[in-house]
């Protein structure tokens, strides 16, 4: 399982724009590099990231083989209500990881 780091404010005022930063520890093998035996290493990348705010999609990104290992994203959204932000990364070889973070809006 990959390790995800998520940084966002735990509290915010209603209507405030909040910045969200995510980092996923993942090797991101492109499938184009030869391994020690001269054969191509199999592709193993994160292909998609989705952030949902209480079930509503607020951000989506697609990744491709040129994406660096340990993909880092920064994006913003508007704090509308207290709830949960759900972060999901999916990728090759059945990879899927979801992490939830609560936010309190006053």
From TrEMBL:
Q: Which SUPFAM superfamilies match?
A: E set domains
Q: Which Pfam families match?
A: SoxZ
**Residue ranges of the Sulphur oxidation protein SoxZ domain?**
9-101
Q: This chain belongs to which protein, by name?
A: Sulphur oxidation protein SoxZ domain-containing protein
UniProt source species = Methylobacterium crusticola
